[in-house]
Amino acid sequence: MKMSHFIAKRLFYSVFVLLGLSIVIFTMSRIFPGDPARMALGTLAPQWAVDKLREQLHLNDPIHIQYFIWLTNALRGDLGMSLVTKRPVLTDIKTFFPATFELVIFSIILSISISIVIGVTAGRHANSLFDNFVRIASYLGVAMPTFVWAIIAMFIFAYSWNILPALGRLNMGTIPPPRITGMITIDSLLTGNFRAFFDVLKHMIIPGSALAIGRIAQDTRIMRASIVENLRKDYIAAATSYGIPERLVMFKYLMKPSLIPVVSIMGLEISSSMAGSFIIEFIFNWPGFGRYGANAMLNKDLNAIIGSVMIVGVFFALINILVDVIIAYLDPRIRMAFRSE
Amino acid sequence: MEKLGINKKSIQKNWYKFSRNPLSIIGLTVVVAIIFITLFADFIAPYPEHAGWYTDFKNAKLPPSFNHPFGTDTMGRDVLSRVMFGFRYSLMMAFVVLIIVVPIGTFLGLIAGYYNNTWLDTMIMRLTDIFVAIPSLVLAMMISALLKPSLFNAMIAVTLLWWPWYSRLVYGISSSLRNEYFIQSAEMIGASPLHILFREILPNTLAPIFTKMTLDVAWVILIGSSLSFIGLGAQPPTPDLGTMVSDGYKYMPEIWWVSMFPSLAIVLTILGFNLLGDGIRDMLAAEVY
To answer: Do A151 and B260 touch (CB under 8 A)?
Structure first.
């Protein structure tokens, strides 16, 4: 089986899972008690207005017909109107998604780089004082819900020491760069607006670290374990006894196989930080997709809820395929398995 | 008891293995303490009446002191008392969810694994694929938003999406066990499918299930408190830890104690169950594999 076949097969399978997911989500949104039209208009709206909205949303049709209407529209890129923002859901998501993507990527970079450095150091000096300290700290990190760290970090860095901004994406005085990708970091670099670049980076530190904290703890543990395991392998002993410099042994022989377990759970982690962004963006007033989704849920904005949950599902599916490709690149054993078949 | 191999000697041996790691002992102590507080919150909380709608604006926003070790919140309620009751709601959520989810998930996993490669297997396992295709937190938030947000509905939400993890765990074990000799001989003697599922396969899955349950208490508490933090779970005045944190963080720089102590309580609970779960996993590991 070639790599391209493998990817095609995964994509094909993902489509089925996503279809199933859409059926589950859609059914839940229609069978749970409560009239969505009444919810959207409020308790004071007259009955005729509610009836009219029910007609518009096809709520009077049988549920499978409603689903097919939704699905055909969704495949054409129409996820319906948001009942709260009064704009198409897809337009809303397109507006808000880049901000979240930026934050999630930042938190991934943060967690991967920190956990590799700490994990490798702890693994190479196993059972030292530093290693034990890391072990205790990682227990604490895993037990820390994102919102708890968010609040503690906000308290320490933004309010007590006052060195980092707490809320929003940019300071009031900073001129935002023109929207090209929607990610301020990239837009500001493209337009040479370094003030905005550093400002947005500063704003990302607390929310980004809140998204990263649990993963830093987990990845450090995995990284440490795999370093300890691989250090015992014969090929490391062989490489060392050939007199290959330690630095070379480290990076060429030890790091690559040790990275595989960390990368293989990366897909799960990216999606967990997407989920975390629903809470973190809410706390930090970060104008992103997570805050949009959380607000849709709090306001029971049906189309927006279904739309944003489906987008998370699509994103998750794509990321998982990407991670499999990265692992195949890192692990020659898997790559060879593809070639030989 | 004898049938499952539980006797005095094995208990002694397991306790020895468990107690070798000081972290497991810390976990056990924390969990026992929390369960104790949960059961007797009415008697040991300094102000039990502060758990519900109670207002005393004269004593509102008091910093931690001898009378109120964790301070008082914006309505003058003692934060320590509310944290003690908060443990109760967190634990209740975890136990209710797990008591429903574990039997259902295990049963479906057993069937799917035993009837491997049949339509039953396909149906159950593809259904679990759908539920794990999206982060649990987002799905829980969605279900609990579609139902009316409340503690009870948050429990329903987490219950609906948690069973697939048990099915997948049990499926892995049961689909590999069905080719073992002891299952095949049982089939040959003419044992009924029920006997094979519950008497032959199920006992082999108990240790991993038990380990996962202990660790899952922590995860369910984490999801539950996240839900109530964002307003999709327990509603005020329920003294849920997540609700208390979200009540407090709006007044953050000045009256930090209102959200800080419930936050630490959440961390302590999750930490305790994680440490205990790791200890149990290490204790049972050699016995199973």
So the answer is: yes
Angle at alpha carbon of residue B113, lines to B180 and A1, rounded to 5°: 95
pLDDT in tens, B219-268: 999 999 999 998 888 887 888 888 888 888 888 777 888 888 999 999 99
A285/B61 Cα distance (integer angstroms): 25
Amino acid at A240: T
CATH fold label, A94-299:
MetI-like fold (1.10.3720)
List residues of chain B with CB under 8 Å from any CB of chain A. Answer: 23, 126-127, 129-131, 133-139, 141-143, 145-148, 218, 222, 225-226, 229-232, 242, 245, 249, 252-253, 256, 259-260, 263, 266-267, 270-271, 274-275
Q: What are B184's two structure tokens?
A: 């095949």
Q: What span, in angstroms and rounded, lies between the C-alpha atoms of B124 and B107?
A: 11
Domains of chain B: 8-53+76-288 (1.10.3720.10)
Is the distance from CB of B248 to CB of B258 less than 8 angstroms? yes
- The reply to whether ipTM tops 0.95 is no
Q: Nearest residue on chain A to B270, judged by CA atoms?
A: A143
* pTM score, whole prediction: 0.87
